[in-house]
Amino acid sequence: MDIVPSHDDLVALALGAVDDDERVILESLLADDPERQEQLRALSSTAAGLGGLVTQSPPPDLWDKILASARQERAPGRFVGLQDSDRLTEFEALRRSVDEFAELLHSLTPADWELAVPTYGRVRDLLAHLLAIEDYVGGQFGLWPAVPDPAMGHVEVSRAAIALWAEVPIETLVKAWTERSRDVLQYASEANAAELDSPARWHAAEVSKRALLVIRTFELWAHGDDVRRALGRPEGQPDVGRLVLMTEFAVLLVPTALALSGHSYPDRTARLVLTGEGGGAWNRVLRLEPLLDDGQAADVVIVADAVDFCRVATRRLDPDALDVTFDGDELLGHAILSSLGALAAD
Amino acid sequence: MADRRPDAELLDRLQAGDDGALAEVYRHSSPLVYGLCHRVTADPAASAELCQQVFVELWRQPRRFRRDTSLDTALTVRAHQLAVKWCRQRSASPPGDGPAEEPARSSPSLRSAMEALPPEQQRAITMAYFGGRTYREVATALSISDGAAKTQLRLALSQLTFHLPTEGMTAWT
Asked: Dihedral (C-alpha) A34, A36, A42, A44: value to the nearest 10 degrees?
């Protein structure tokens, strides 16, 4: 065998026709030779074509064994590489979002605060809105008196605050928001499971306090992107832990979104496959209970990127602009995606 | 059977934990994987186990699969590695020395091309690829030198290249 592997050596290696000792030697010689590595890869691909001469159907029961074994290795619906340590509590997810948003605010110049953002006017008006929402949420947590009309809409409930803070020095506004958001975080860090599972209002809906924390995480991410877009900066990518919480939450609320949009498909099913870090796969019956049987075929399978799915849910991406694949009832799939934005209060 | 989705999409879905994607890959690729394992090992039980290992590996670590190589190729390469290793660990008489069996589905031109190879090239590549033999064992069996055995393998693969599904591979001699 030549010190520099020849074509013949590479062919033998690609065909599996070398013993283990020689294979190890050849592979070490190729380690720093990207050109020959590429040649080997091409030869291996070519050799693999020989398999086409000998195709044969496997035993009928083999698939069930493979599926059972695969599910033991990694549960379906779980993103590959997702560790238990990646999972965040709702408190930790919100804490990261508050810290990230605070860092964004501290990077703004005086001129940046006057830039236009959707719905609320200027960046500073957006922060006044968020301050009002912290007030709203803190009231629901019992930290201070709740707003007089908790059923008031998400945009409407902050109009008075936006007007009140319109000309107040920015430092004062930022300090007020920071204090309010830290108070909410303090509550979240100390609340036990029973408290977090207890009900609270979120405008027209009743949700758990736990869900409110996820909603706030969603909102801070979406509004953070509103500010970044105004500044011409790249959009924010949530970390895996927050994205897992957000996608699970959005998928859970698909039937709610449909109902809010005036759709009703109580006996239909959907499988949502959200790709990318923090994604996963979920089977949903389109009423308010999840499907329990992983093996049941869904009426539609929707495959989309996890972050973009969340952008559709927050109305930061038009459903028609989403890069999505449907398998099955495409009309149902479109109805689900077009209704997702109903979850966003803005 | 419905057209298979693009490999990149299937890999994304596998990463997301969609076992429906695994089912789809299995549906399309298992005859290739199982068939090759069976041809090399001639052992149905071993073939089933090796086939299982290939697909469970795909499910466990889909991110290890290169996006610039087709899934069929990657799975076939892995199946062949496992099958040859199985044979050598058992020091079994190479079961795959004979000519390739009549396939369930393969290119007629590939079969013809294989049959049209000069006898020594056909024997060499059959013993090596389907028999799990090393080129030294092929040389001994054919009473030729090691270098000549490698040459026969190279010539055979080169002749068959035009009839094999390629991924940008150009013929060479």
From this structure: -110
Q: Same domain, yes or no, for B80 and B141?
A: no
Contacts of A343 (CB under 8 A, 6+ apart): A250, A253, A256, A257, A260, A313, A314
Q: Check CB contact of A77 with chain B, cutoff 8 Å.
A: yes
Q: Does ipTM come in above 0.90?
A: no
Report the domain count for chain B. Answer: 2
Identify whether B39 is part of a domain.
yes
Contacts of A83 in chain B (CB under 8 A): none
State what percent of residues in chain A have pLDDT above 70. 96
Q: With CA atoms as reference, report the closest residue to A309 among A280, A270, A266.
A: A280
Give the pLDDT band of residue B170 (cuts 50, 70, 90).
very low
Judge residue A283's burial from the number of C-beta atoms within 10 Å of its C-beta, 0-12 exposed, 13-18 middle, 19 or more buried.
buried
| Interface residue of B15, B64, B65, B105 to substitute, partner A, most A CBs within 10 Å | B15
Residue A327 phi/psi, 5-degree rounding, is -135, 115
Residue B142: other Cβ atoms inside 10 A: 16
In a domain, B77, yes or no: yes
**Interatomic CA distance for residues A54 and B100, integer angstroms:** 7
pTM for the model = 0.80
pLDDT band at B98 (very low <50, low <70, confident <90, very high): very low
d(CA A123, CA A129): 10
**Domain CATH code at residue B147:** 1.10.10.10
Tokens of A121: 């006017």
Please tell me the distance from the alpha carbon of residue B100 to that of residue B146, in angstroms, as a whole number: 23
Q: Is the pLDDT of residue A344 over 90?
A: no
**pLDDT tens for residues B20-48?**
999 999 999 999 999 999 999 999 999 99
Last residue of one domain, picked from the residues B90, B116, B134: B90
B51 and B115 both lie in a single domain: no
Q: Tell whether A233 lies on the interface with B, counting CB pairs under 8 A.
A: no
User: Binning pLDDT at 50, 70 and 90, where does residue A144 land?
Assistant: very high
Contact yes or no for B106 and A54 at CB 8 A? yes
User: Between A123-140 and A170-190, two packed helices, what is the crossing angle to 10 degrees?
Assistant: 30
